C-alpha cells in the first residue's frame, strides 16, 4: 500500500471516528432522575460531608452517569449540564430521559 493510500485510509477513519456521538451524549443510556425536593445539593464526592458543587431544584432532570449507584445505594453519579457530581438518591425518582 502506498503512503498516499495509507494517508487517505487514515483520514477516512478519522472522519468516521469524529462522527461518533460524544461520551456525554451516550451517558443517557443509564437513565435520568427527577428531583423531588425543593433543593438538592450536588456534591463532589458521594458523602454528605463532601463539598457542595451545585444545587438542583424540584423538577430538574439529572442524567445518571453510571449504571449503578454507590454500593449501599444512597448516592448516584449524576450530570446536570456540564456539572458532574453525586446526589442523594432518596431525593430523586428514576424516570426515562426526555
As a percent range, the share of strand residues is 35-45%
- Uncertain regions spanning at least 5 consecutive residues: 13-27
| Cα shape | globular
Main sheet attributes: strand count, strand direction, barrel closure: 5 strands, antiparallel
- Helix proportion range: 10-25%
**Continuous helix count:** 2
Mean pLDDT: 81
H/E element order:
HHEEEEEEE
- Number-wise, the strands total 7
Task: Report the end-to-end length measured between terminal Cα atoms.
Answer: 48 Å
Radius of gyration: 19 Å
Protein structure class? alpha+beta
Main-sheet strand order equals: 6-5-4-1-7
Describe the structure.
This protein is of the alpha+beta class. 20% of the residues lie in helices and 36% in strands. The chain has 2 helices and 7 strands. It has a 5-stranded antiparallel sheet with strand order 6-5-4-1-7, with no helix packed on it. The chain has a two-stranded antiparallel sheet with strand order 2-3. Strand 5 (75-80) and strand 6 (83-88) form a beta hairpin. The N and C termini lie far apart (48 Å).
List keywords for this structure.
98 residues, alpha+beta, two-stranded antiparallel ribbon, 7 strands, 20% helix
Topology:
Elements lengths: L2 H16 L4 H4 L5 E4 L3 E5 L8 E6 L3 E4 L10 E6 L2 E6 L3 E4 L3
Antiparallel strand pairs: 1-4, 1-7, 2-3, 4-5, 5-6
Give a brief rundown of this model.
20% of the residues lie in helices and 36% in strands. By secondary structure, the protein is of the alpha+beta class.
Amino acid at each position: 500500500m502506498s503512503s498516499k493510500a495509507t494517508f487517505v485510509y487514515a483520514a477516512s477513519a478519522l472522519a468516521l471516528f469524529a462522527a461518533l456521538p460524544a461520551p456525554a451524549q451516550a451517558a443517557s443510556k443509564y437513565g435520568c432522575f427527577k428531583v423531588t425536593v425543593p433543593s438538592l445539593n450536588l456534591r463532589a464526592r458521594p458523602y454528605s460531608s463532601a463539598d457542595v458543587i451545585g444545587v438542583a431544584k424540584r423538577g430538574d432532570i439529572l442524567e445518571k452517569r453510571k449504571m449503578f449507584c454507590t454500593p449501599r445505594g444512597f448516592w448516584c453519579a449524576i450530570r446536570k449540564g456540564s456539572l458532574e457530581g453525586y446526589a442523594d438518591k432518596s431525593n430523586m425518582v428514576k424516570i426515562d430521559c426526555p
